[in-house]
Amino acid sequence: MHIKTQTISRAGMIAVFLALIRTLAEFFHLQYVNKTALTIAQLQPFISGALVCAIALFSMTIFSFYDKHKWIIAMAVVTIITLLVIKAIYL
User: Fold this and answer.
1) How far from chain centre, in Å, is Cα 40?
2) Model confidence over 70-91: pLDDT tens digits?
3) What DSSP string runs through 24-62?
4) What 3-state class would DSSP assign to 8?
5) Structure pTM?
6) Neighbours of 5 (CB within 10 A)
7) 18 membership: H or E segment, kind and range
8) Cα(63)–Cα(35) distance, rounded to whole angstroms?
């Protein structure tokens, strides 16, 4: 069975959206775990990841208006790799 590029691009957009929600929700987890005030240094990886996800999701939405499904798939892959690199840098 052949999976359409449109279906894969939709799955990529959903994956990036869920990554954005997860990244933003981490603030509340850190706030709950830390009893002290959070610093910018502690939040910087999550702010960077959320910004990457938001920009990628915006560009994927624009690409979807023009039916550029292969570009959406490429953006999803690049976004996930970028998030993994950000995670590796800050760990």
Assistant:
1) 20
2) 999 999 999 999 999 999 998 7
3) HHHHHHHHHH-SSPPPHHHHHHHHHHHHHHHHHHHHHHH
4) helix
5) 0.87
6) 14
7) helix 5-33
8) 43
The tokens for 32 are: 């709950």
CB-based contact 9:72 (threshold 8 Å) = yes
Helix (H/G/I), strand (E/B), else coil: 19: helix
pLDDT given at position 75: 97
Neighbours of 82 (CB within 10 A): 15
Buried b (16+ CB within 10 A) or exposed e, 39-59: eeeeeebbebbbebbeebbee
Average model confidence (pLDDT) for the chain? 92
User: What percent of the chain shows pLDDT beyond 70?
Assistant: 98
